[in-house]
Amino acid sequence: MGFTCGILGLPNVGKSTLFNALTQTISAQAENYPFCTIEPNFGRIAVPDPRLETIAQLAKSEKIIPTNIDFCDIAGLVKGASQGEGLGNKFLAHIREVDALVHVVRCFEDDNIMHVTGKIDPLDDIATIETELMLADLESVEKRIGSMTKKARSDDKEAKQTLALLELVIEALKLGKPARTLDVTEDLLHRFQQLNLLTSKPTIYVCNVDEDSAAKGNTYSEKVTSYAQSVNSTALIVSAAIEAEVALLSEKKEQSEFLEALDLKETGLDRIIIAGYNVLGLITFLTAGRKEARAWSIPKGTTASKAAGTIHTDFEKGFICAETISYEDYIYNKGEQGAKENGKMRQEGRNYFVNDGDIMLFRFNI
């Protein structure tokens, strides 16, 4: 199961520099001019999870395989993108294909790096991007209103519900509110998700600051953090320049020492990856054996049989049970055998809701 976070923002805010560091490659150009990234670049990133190494040691696993999230570097948007400016239509299509957004906002001053508007104003930058996304959504919803109105007139119950939802979306968008700020009831949530609106996607705001502001932020990042809180989103303080330097250090010890000298406890990239995992509503279950210890991504609320299907479709088709140990019990009892002997291994049925950190062995019959 794949999950993709799209990295977007105005040109020259540090998106591609961040992406390069994120993927530890130079696959995305990072040049000082707008539209240097035209085709989206993709990178698959391992989600940091110290639990995996711990269970691998207890299971004496030969390999460790973490779970992943894909990141997509989307070319810079500009004012008028919803009307096709700056190859906008193409870029908006790329945004529509991702599951969540990482919105990089310039929170640093540097006379050597041009800003498309000629001034540093992170809230104005956010407004420019979000206005274009809202205009694109507004156009999309208005197109659907006509056909849905005709169906609703014929007493189609589902069409009436969808029409009412579309009208709520239009009202929010016209007030300058992203679709994700709507309080959608549980019974309409699936229908809302099917609209695939650009502004309904969960968003992380990344304040790209100068190196001196990486530990505590600055006045620019404070404004972005306040804004993110007002729209129920997350804001992170990151220095893309520092992350690029860290990416060049191959040894973990070197990275830790470098970060410590800057009064940083962890890389901003680790925090972005974990935040992306969280905003997508994902949890991790684990499998452990002599061959490998592995992490698997699933949405919260996934049943045991569906979780089994993420490993192999046959596991779901022939599901019998899931032998399950919580991570805490696995560690406390020093592995599977100890947990089993102490009655900490449970046999769960197909409708069991998997918890984060569950260590599972699926029994199936085909």
Q: Which features does this protein show?
A:
366 residues, alpha/beta, 3-stranded mixed β-sheet, 14 helices, flat
- Written as H for each helix and E for each strand, in order along the chain, the element string is EHEHEEHEHHHEHEHHHEEHHEHHEE
Percentage of residues assigned to helices: 40-55%
Strand order of the largest sheet: 2-4-1-5-6-7
Shape: flat
* Number of DSSP strand runs: 12
What is the structural class? alpha/beta
Give the C-alpha Rg: 23 Å
Task: Summarize this structure briefly.
With 366 residues, the chain is of the alpha/beta class. The chain is built from 14 helices and twelve strands. The strands form three sheets. The chain has a six-stranded mixed beta sheet, sandwiched between helices.
Structure explained in plain terms:
Helix content is 42%, strand content 19%. It is built from 14 helices and twelve strands. A hairpin with a 3-residue loop joins strand 8 and strand 9. The strands form three sheets. The chain has a six-stranded mixed beta sheet with strand order 2-4-1-5-6-7, with helices on both faces. The chain is an alpha/beta fold and 366 residues long. Helix 1 packs parallel to helix 8 and helix 4 runs antiparallel to helix 5. It starts with a strand and ends with a strand.
